[in-house]
Amino acid sequence: MRIGNHVLIEPRSYLTGCTIADDVFLATGATVFNHTVIDAPAEVPINGTVHLKTRLTVFGLDCSAAGGTSMPDLTRRYAAVLAAHRNDKPVP
Questions:
Q1: How many domains does the chain have?
Q2: For residue 72, what are the domain limits?
Q3: pLDDT of 51 strictly over 80
Q4: Is the whole model's pTM more than 0.85, yes or no?
Q5: What is the 3-state secondary structure (H, E, C) of the chain?
Q6: With 60 as the cut, is the pLDDT of residue 64 above it?
């Protein structure tokens, strides 16, 4: 399995034996099976399934004027939000 840079994989997603390019978004519950390639920029919706030996090249993410994606900025902002909770304590 290969996972690129600036990839956001949300909870309950299942990946096995696949290749995920840079700047990809996999929503909650996404399932990606063996020998699948997901090209950038692409997204798999909530509970979406990418079947065996499939190549996904769907443009669903906002693209910048330079032809890039919003994923590098999105992943930086998401990491900052998570880091703010680094010292949180469990609620009894």
A1: 1
A2: 2-83
A3: yes
A4: no
A5: CEECCCCEECCCCEECCCEECCCEEECCCCEECCCCEECCCEEECCCCEECCCCEECCCCCCECCCCCECHHHHHHHHHHHHHCCCCCCCCC
A6: no
